């Protein structure tokens, strides 16, 4: 059972999710946030033909940017906006024959400035399509503050 969300977590979620949905690129990818906290997130995108590569599966770049946006949102739930330091995504199986692609981000480490997340991308049947690890730098810009300097 996951812990109950605090008032601060709820306030950050209420700010971060609309920011994600307002971004034009994120609108194009078309993802939906299912769960968002500082330690875990889950989201999905529709396996839309606009995101297909030449071979008929979801393009790796679309998957990478979907995962990067969700892992970044998860990192920002720590209280400060984050920027990607490194992104590693292993493409294990093609994303085909599924209505949705799911991304789960699980916190591995939160340091003073660096946050690291384990990534799992699955299809409707729970098959592991991609796995990886993303690292982020926590900026000085606070999610709930007026300080937007990175």
Automatic annotation (TrEMBL):
Q: Does the keyword Hydrolase apply?
A: yes
Identify the taxonomic lineage of the organism of origin.
Answer: Bacteria, Bacillati, Bacillota, Clostridia, Lachnospirales
One short Pfam family name for this protein?
4HBT
Domain of life according to the entry: Bacteria
Domain Thioesterase, by residue range, is 55-128
Q: Which UniProt keywords apply?
A: Hydrolase
**InterPro entries given for it?**
HotDog_dom_sf (IPR029069), PAAI_dom (IPR003736), Thioestr_dom (IPR006683)
Q: Recorded GO terms, molecular function?
A: acyl-CoA hydrolase activity
Question: What name does the UniProt record give this protein?
Answer: Acyl-CoA thioesterase
């Amino acid at each position: 059972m996951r812990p109950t969300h605090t008032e601060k977590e709820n306030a950050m979620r209420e700010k971060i999710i609309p920011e994600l949905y307002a971004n034009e690129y994120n609108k194009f990818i078309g993802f939906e946030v299912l769960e968002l906290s500082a330690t875990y997130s889950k989201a999905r995108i529709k396996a839309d033909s606009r995101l297909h590569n030449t071979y008929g599966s979801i393009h790796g770049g679309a998957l990478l940017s979907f995962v990067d946006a969700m892992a970044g949102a998860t990192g920002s739930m720590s209280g400060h906006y984050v920027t990607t330091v490194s992104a590693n995504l292993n493409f294990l199986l093609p994303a085909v024959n599924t209505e949705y692609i799911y991304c789960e981000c699980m916190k591995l480490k939160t340091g003073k400035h660096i946050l690291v997340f384990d990534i799992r991308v699955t299809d409707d049947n729970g098959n592991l399509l991609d796995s990886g690890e993303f690292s982020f730098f926590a900026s000085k810009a606070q999610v709930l503050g007026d300080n937007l300097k990175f």
